[in-house]
Design brief:
The protein contains three helices and four strands; from the N terminus they run βααβββα. It has a four-stranded mixed beta sheet, covered by helices on one side. The relative contact order is 0.17.
């Protein structure tokens, strides 16, 4: 009786290589003349090349918009767009806004209300807990 070797299937690596950034494109709009774009102009010259090199999956568009405030617009996989005005911000503040857009999912912000934190189609097998379950009330006889 001969034994055949079992082919090894791919092993799970806990999400390594499976994460896809939801932001697919960033548009940078600026003005060469206006003072409100001073931080954006410095950002585009100094910080943007490093950011673009470290995030090759994000498409970068830079376009001038004369006589308007600087804006960063993010385009997401689900088709939505979010814009952030970066008027009169410094380069590090603009980098923070860019990272916010990079990390966004593209979904609308929803308010989290009290109640169930985890939604499920099936109720728990133990039922819903309340403070009136469990031990009896302490007696104060003395």
């Amino acid at each position: 009786m001969t034994l055949k070797a079992i082919q090894k299937t791919s092993t799970s690596q806990n999400g390594i290589g499976a994460f896809i950034l939801q932001c697919k494109r960033l548009d940078f709009h600026y003005c060469d003349w206006a003072g409100s774009s001073r931080g954006m102009n410095i950002f585009l010259q100094e910080r943007l090349p490093k950011f673009a090199a470290s995030h090759p999956s994000i498409e970068i568009h830079v376009s001038p918009r004369p006589h308007r405030h600087p804006v960063i617009r993010g385009h997401f996989i689900n088709g939505t767009q979010h814009s952030i005005c970066v008027r009169n911000l410094q380069t590090l503040e603009i980098l923070q806004k860019v990272e916010i857009l990079r990390d966004m999912s593209g979904e609308k912000a929803r308010r989290v209300r009290g109640g169930k934190v985890v939604g499920s189609l099936n109720e728990g097998t133990r039922g819903v807990w309340s403070p009136f379950h469990g031990a009896r009330a302490p007696s104060f006889e003395g």
